[in-house]
Amino acid sequence: VEKIEEQLASLHIAKRSTLSEEPAYLLDIDVSKPAQSESSRFVAVSCSNKSIRVYNRETLNFLREYRSCPGILNGVRFAHACDSIVFSACSDGTVKCWDIRLATQKAVQIFSGYPSNIFISFDINCSDLIICAGTEKVEKDTFLVFWDARGITNCASAAEEPLGVYSESHNDDITKICFHPIKPNLVVSGSTDGLVNVFDINKDNEDDALISTCNSNSSVSFIGWSGKDYKQVYCMTHDEGFCWWDIAQLDTEEPITLLHVLDVRDAVCIENDSLHYLVGGLYHEKADKLFLIGGTSTGNIHLISCSTDGLSLVGTLCGGHAATVRSFCWNLIDESLLTGGEDAQLLLWKPRAVERSLAKKASMKIASSVQKRVRVHNSSLKSRKK
C-alpha cells in the first residue's frame, strides 16, 4: 500500500478537456484497450445530455460525439480486440456500436432487445463474443438480455436479435453488469433489489447458470471483480454501503462474506475532510489489493484501501474538480487516472505531471438536471450522525 500511496501522491493534473458548448455531467469513462503494442489511443465518456464523447487519450482533444435521441445512453465500453469500436446501452431497448474511424454519426451495429426493454446497464465479455444488457423493471419483468457480438469489427450494419434472456434472478432494475476480466463465461449483475448474482453463461439454462446469489440488503450502484484470479466479487450501494464476497468459498464451510460496511462514510476516518459518496472500485493486480474511490461534493477524490479488517484512507487528490466526481478510469500500466464530474470536466492525472493549460478551473455546478435514471447521491448532502 505504501507504493500506492506514493503513486497517488505523485499524481498531478496533466490535461483538462475544454468545456463543450453544452456542459453535461460525465457519468462513465472507458479507455480503448491497447491494440498490439501501442498504448490506448482513445477515451470515451457517457454524458448526461444523451451523448457519448470521444477524446484523444493523451491530449484530451475532442474527436467525436454520438447522440442517440430520443433514448438515453447508459454506460460506455470499448471492444477488447479493436480499439476503435465503442458500445453504449440505450433506453430505447438497444445496445449501439460505433466505429471511431468512420465519419458517420450512425451506429455501425445495433443490438435490439424486446419491445418493452429499457436498458440501463451493459457489458461485453473479455473475448468480445457476448454482450449482456440489464433492463429497468417494466410491470413485473426484469431481464438480462444476451447477444452474439461477433462480426462487430466487420461493421455489419444489420440489427442483431438476442440470443436469449435471464428473467428469474432479479425482481427490480438491473443497475450494473460486469463480465469477469479473464473468464469470458462468467458475469455478475447487481440490482436495486439488493442482489448480486454470479452466472456461468456456458450452462444450458438460467437455474444452472446461477452460481451464487449475494445479498447487499440495499440498492446496488457498482459491482466488480477482485482478488487473485478474480475469485471475489464486491459491490457498492446507493446509500454508500460496501459488500465484499469470496466466491471461491462457495463449496467450503468458510463464510463467503469478507467485509460488509453499512455506511462507508462513517467507517473511514479522514482528517480535515469528509467522505460524501462512493464512485466505484478498482482491483490493483500487482499489489493484490482492492481500492474504493470516493469523494466530496467539492470535487476532492479519496482513495480507500480494503482489507478484511476494514477500510482505510490511502490518500486524497485535491484541486482538480469543482463538484461531485461521477466517473473514473485508472490505467495501471502507466499509472494514470482519468476522472469526470458534475463540473463537466474530464481530467487526466499523471505521475509528476505539470498542467500546461491556462484554462481556469470552472467553479460552476451545472444547472441542467441529470435524467431521472441516473441516481444522484442525495445522501451526500445530509449531515452525518455523530
TrEMBL record:
First and last residues of every WD repeat: 167-209, 318-350
Chain segments annotated as coiled-coil in the UniProt record: none
SUPFAM superfamilies cross-referenced by the UniProt entry: WD40 repeat-like (SSF50978)
Gene3D superfamilies assigned: YVTN repeat-like/Quinoprotein amine dehydrogenase
Superkingdom field: Eukaryota
PANTHER family: WD REPEAT-CONTAINING PROTEIN 89
The name this protein goes by in its record: WD repeat-containing protein 89
Annotated organism of origin: Fulmarus glacialis
